[in-house]
Amino acid sequence: MTTLQASAAPTAYGSARLLAGVTGGARADLATHRSMHGPQQHRSHDALVRETAAVRLLGRGGAAFPVATKLAAMTTGSPVEVVVNGSESEPASHKDRTLMTLAPHLVLDGALLVARALRTRRVTIAVHDGGAHDSLVRAVQERRTTEPHPERVTVRLQAARFVGGEVRALLNGLDGRAAVPPGRRTLPTEQGLHGRPTFASNVETFAQIALLVSLGAHRYADIGDPDEPGTTMLTLVGDLAAPGVVEVPTGLPLDALLPHGDGDPVLIGGYHGHWVRDVDGLRLNRSLLREAGVPLNAGVIARLPATGCALAEVAAVTSWLARQSAGQCGPCLFGTHAVAQDVNALLRGRPSLEITNRLRGMTRRGACAHPDGTAAFVSSALTAMASEIAVHLEHGGCGRPYLRSLPLVEDGS
Q1: CATH for 310-395 (2.40.50.140, 1.20.1440.230, 1.10.260.40, 3.50.50.60)
Q2: How far is it, in rounded angstroms, from Cα 66 to Cα 76?
Q3: Is 167's pLDDT higher than 50?
Q4: CB atoms within 10 A of CB 404
Q5: At residue 403, does pLDDT exceed 90?
Q6: Domain 12-225 classified CATH 3.40.50.11540?
Q7: Tens of pLDDT along 171-209?
Q8: Which pTM value belongs to this model?
């Protein structure tokens, strides 16, 4: 089992915004937060929709859904729930945990902004990391003494599980059911927590909303890609000059984050992401990356060191993904395990004639996105690592060690 070094201080490429005041690794208490970001702001529902639309703000989870569209679809009033998804079940990602641990008041500002815009007093923050949980609880207590507010903010510690981070699975868990995605496709905006209309998004999204309102749309958009302004959080993993959590301007070319090692396999988007060999021409614009077939997803970018066995990394993650199956449908229960066996066979130099058919059979047939994500991870690896696989098939291996560059954690870790 490997884990990302979470204690390293985050860094910023250019001006720190989300990470203002915390790049040294110290937690920002309420006084420090206010000195950086100003007083708590308020917006009406219509005004918040307009501001998020003006900067074309996209959610910072896997779907990258337009925030303004989700807000506009929400009803307002007391039955509404606001849920901050801080589960961050992607093992390679630490960006949300960094925000919750070091900048919890920015997350709270965003959650309270949305709650007040939707005219509800219920905010639930779901998190599985103990340090992040404690920091958020402490932040809520800090506000009770100096900034009392009528909203009821509940911080819930949930069990860690990869599929449990999917928003509908998370809502199931919060409601006391099994934390697995339901087969039905009802949107949380229609029926979410406790069966009520729910605005749910990930931690960075709420922090971005707070930053947007604090800066104003014009200042927010004065850096970054004109089509997707501002900054974004990433977790850099593996053979990089400074692995860890970073805040970078949108629009930044990916090769600026990968200054050496041309031709080494690069994973974009985490364990439901895609492998590539060449990042030339790719830049940090979620819409353009999705069009290029390499969605940013959880904001993970990993490059494997040339001294290690790349196929061993893929085999280990694929086996882990199989163990994370929700067990609700054939493509997930049987397909992921069969593909993991196929990849491990390739690792040992044994050809797998059925892997392509298995991957095709998993795609768009599952009860949730887990089979699709696993298929994308493996199928892109087969293409990006074709030369490594050929060596394994010819010689029974490549002779390089398994370096455990890609972090893995088991349930409950």
Answers
A1: 1.20.1440.230
A2: 19
A3: yes
A4: 14
A5: yes
A6: yes
A7: 999 999 988 888 667 889 999 999 999 999 999 999 999
A8: 0.94
